[in-house]
Specification:
alpha/beta, 5 domains, binds zinc ion, single chain, binds adenosine-5'-diphosphate, Rossmann fold, 6-stranded parallel β-sheet
């Protein structure tokens, strides 16, 4: 009787052994799911080893309840990837599996009932004459198509209509048959590729020459330089070879134009993968990837774990984007795991960005990544001019200088659009008492609560606690409460009063919460009518707004002096990305930055020399200060109702680190209070660990994990380990 070592979705760092009753007369494979008893429950797990050499043969093992997959759901490549991820992030494999498998598979859904419906002609349909369709051009067209090839129900419905399809079925001319998904068939592109400029051509050639082996590319191209065209033309030969392509993007809802360009170009099955899918849609996408039917998948972070049958190319667009890193639970970075996946699949990976992460630029310096550059915009459009507007000694009207307002008015009057960028949603970051200076604070966090005027609420943006706006000061009882600072909601209200002649569209998390509202807002903007567009971070991501010719960054000062060593990188990325939104149509664009520090070296560097130059000096600085990417970093976070317990627990880890540091190159910082000291009623502390030697750091982490498991104090805190942390 074989012994099965099973990975289970439990937060324990071990596998569990079960027995397989051989008389079931079916063979079991590694990577198949099994249903097993676990305590009083039944759990779905994945067979990770069969007859492991270190199993106790004389132990009495429980038998599995049921074998769920005759064919493994996880092939060897994905299992390697997941094992690697579990080791690298020191995270329980069972939990890693949970991230990688669609919910329905985790729940034990059997796979064989997932089929595609194929529309094909019946025998009668093959031999009938076109006289039958004399009165319906649509039916004739569908019939002629079907005479050449059968195609899926989805295609039939989208290219013709459900009614037309049904009419042919009712006449007995066509029929729907169920078929398992099969590898896609390559069809030539529907739309001609653009003639490439020399820089684009070099990039495409480099990637295409690397097909079939593992190679890493960083495509650094200013916004509008034609990166997407490079992706499209690098993809085409992969499809022609019958191989699949995965394109990872930070957020899908925000880039409908990019999707549309892919759809217009290629005639092969293309799927998207994102957080707004139903469980069933996810399972289907998973299966179509596994069967080879999905030629291109464009998806967010977790699409990385789709089981491609034959992956030929991996692309990550906006590779610098922070949302590629999962920020809770299994805290993986999709870019880093994607590189690992490409090495397992033996295929090239192409990372693209106008503002590459310092990590990737460092990898270029280390000659791990091949640098491809698109230094100019692909069309004759000018790169927008960036102007600094000194706010010192200016009278501000609602946060805007007179000069800014004048330029906004002029631009609108010329019939163009203006975009205002303010990275704070709500009406105001807090309410202040005019008499005593008391500020509205969250009751559960060490943070102020944002005043939302439209919903008449104070909302904490850290723990989401919501309460009605108070009438009186909590300290002195005065009723003189006034908003301090400015959020997007306030800017909208004030500009509505100052410039009533033009409509305003606001894009932030509040204004796009309702389903469909983002699309509606984007549509208004794309209509091209002169208007003000006000928004947060959301605006910076990948949009193509041709009618915008002026971008105003209302407030950059907050980010200039931050304690987070990544803040300058992020600000430089944001400014460059936001300015890339200006002048993408026929008119030249301009960007206005309002600041009290026009002489700040970061601003000067980004504006005068561009992001790439900034990045070089930023890398130098990281080298001098011995920070990532020049050192490897990991961080333990602890939270508890009792602040002292957090500190004690982290001190335990720190002492052990100090001990090991006698033999290995290890440094640490902490334990210190987290920047947000208290969140949702719990106190938060952290311990940062550094080493120039990746192996030394990982040995330390492994040792600390053992210590944590054996320490009783560990049960008194909620803790997590973050390897290569991004938010500090
Ligand atoms: P990016 O992805 O780098 O921001 P895009 O791929 O969106 O840039 O290209 C910007 C614009 O330039 C698009 O309108 C695109 O159609 C156009 N474009 C790209 N490559 C070429 C080319 N080789 N010739 C002409 N136009 C191009
Ligand atoms: Zn709070
Ligand atoms: Zn007061």
């Amino acid at each position: 009787m074989p012994i099965l070592r099973v990975a289970l979705p439990v937060p324990l760092r071990q596998h569990f052994d079960y027995q397989m009753e051989t008389d079931e007369n079916i063979s079991v494979s590694i990577g198949s799911r099994v249903l097993v008893p676990f305590g009083k429950r039944q759990l779905v797990g994945v067979v990770w080893q069969i007859d492991p050499s270190d199993s106790f043969t004389d132990a009495v093992l429980k038998p599995i309840t049921q074998l769920l997959d005759p064919v493994p759901v996880l092939g060897p490549m994905l299992r390697d990837l997941l094992s690697f991820a579990a080791d690298y992030y020191h995270h329980p494999l069972g939990d890693v599996l949970t991230s990688a498998l669609p919910a329905l598979l985790r729940e034990g859904r059997l796979l064989n009932n997932e089929k595609q419906k194929l529309l094909q002609l019946t025998a009668e349909g093959q031999s009938c004459s076109d006289i039958l369709f004399k009165r319906s051009a649509k039916q004739l067209a569908l019939w002629l198509q079907l005479k050449q090839t059968a195609f899926t129900e989805t295609v039939a419905v989208s290219e013709f209509s459900r009614a037309t399809m049904q009419q042919l079925i009712d006449k007995g001319i066509a029929e729907l048959i169920s078929q398992p998904f099969t590898p896609f068939e390559y069809l030539p592109e529907k739309q001609k590729p653009l003639p490439l400029n020399p820089a684009q051509a070099l990039s495409v050639t480099a990637v295409v020459q690397a097909l079939g082996r593992f190679e890493r590319f960083l495509l650094e191209g200013v916004t509008g330089s034609g990166k997407t065209e490079v992706y499209l033309q690098a993809i085409q030969p992969v499809l022609a070879k019958g191989q699949q392509v995965l394109v990872l993007v930070p957020e899908i809802g925000l880039t409908p134009q990019t999707l549309a360009r892919f759809e217009k170009r290629f005639a092969v099955p293309m799927l998207t993968w994102h957080s707004n899918m139903t469980d069933h849609e996810r399972l289907r996408c998973w299966q179509r990837s596994q069967s080879g039917d999905a030629a291109i998948v464009i998806g967010t972070r977790s699409a990385l774990f789709l089981p491609f049958r034959n992956l030929g190319l991996l692309i990550i667009d906006e590779e610098h984007d922070q949302s590629l890193k999962q920020q809770d639970g299994f805290r993986y970075h999709a870019r880093d795991l994607a590189v690992k996946r490409a090495s397992l699949e033996q295929c090239p990976i192409l990372l693209g960005s106008a503002t590459p992460s310092l990590e990737s630029l460092y990898n270029v310096q280390q000659q791990k990544f091949i640098h491809l550059q698109l230094p100019e915009r692909a069309t004759s459009q000018q790169v927008p001019k960036i102007e600094l507007l000194d706010l010192k000694q200016q009278v501000l009207k609602n946060g805007l200088a007179d000069g800014t307002l004048a330029q906004i008015r002029q631009t609108l009057k010329r019939g163009q659009q203006v975009m205002l960028f303010l990275n704070r949603r709500g009406f105001a970051p807090a309410l202040i008492c005019h008499e005593c200076g008391w500020l509205t604070e969250c009751l559960h966090c060490s943070a102020f609560t944002t005043y939302h005027k439209q919903s008449r609420q104070l909302i904490c943006h850290h723990c989401a606690a919501t309460r009605p706006v108070p009438h009186q000061c909590g300290n002195c009882g005065s009723t003189q409460l006034a908003p301090v600072g400015q959020g997007t909601e306030q800017l909208e209200e004030q500009l509505g009063r100052l410039i009533p002649e033009f409509p305003i569209t606001r894009l932030d998390r509040d204004s796009t919460r309702r389903k469909g509202s983002l699309e509606a807002h984007l549509e208004t903007i794309h209509s091209g009518t002169p208007q003000l567009i006000i928004g947060t971070q959301m605006l910076a991501k990948g949009h193509h707004f041709p009618a915008v010719s002026l971008v105003v960054v209302v407030d950059v000062d907050g980010a200039l002096y931050s304690s987070d060593f990544r803040a300058s990188e992020q600000l430089a990325q944001l400014l460059t990305q936001v300015s890339g939104r200006a002048g993408r149509g026929d008119v030249a664009g301009k960007v206005l930055l309002q600041t009290h520090y026009p002489g700040h070296p970061l601003l000067q560097d980004v504006i005068q020399n561009g992001y790439h130059s900034f990045a070089r000096s930023a890398l130098l600085e990281r080298q001098q200060t011995r920070l990532p990417p020049y050192q490897y970093m990991a961080m333990f976070r602890a939270e508890a109702l009792d602040s002292a317990v957090c500190e004690q627990w982290l001190a335990l880890l720190q002492q052990h680190t100090a001990l090991l540091a006698q033999q290995a190159p290890l440094q640490w910082l902490g334990p210190v209070k987290a920047p947000l000291e208290k969140k949702a009623g719990k106190f938060r502390w952290q311990l940062q660990l550094f080493s120039p030697d990746r192996k030394a750091l990982h040995q330390l982490l492994a040792a600390l994990m053992q210590l944590i498991q054996s320490s009783a104090l560990s049960r008194k805190v909620k803790w997590q380990l973050d390897v290569d942390p991004l938010d500090l």
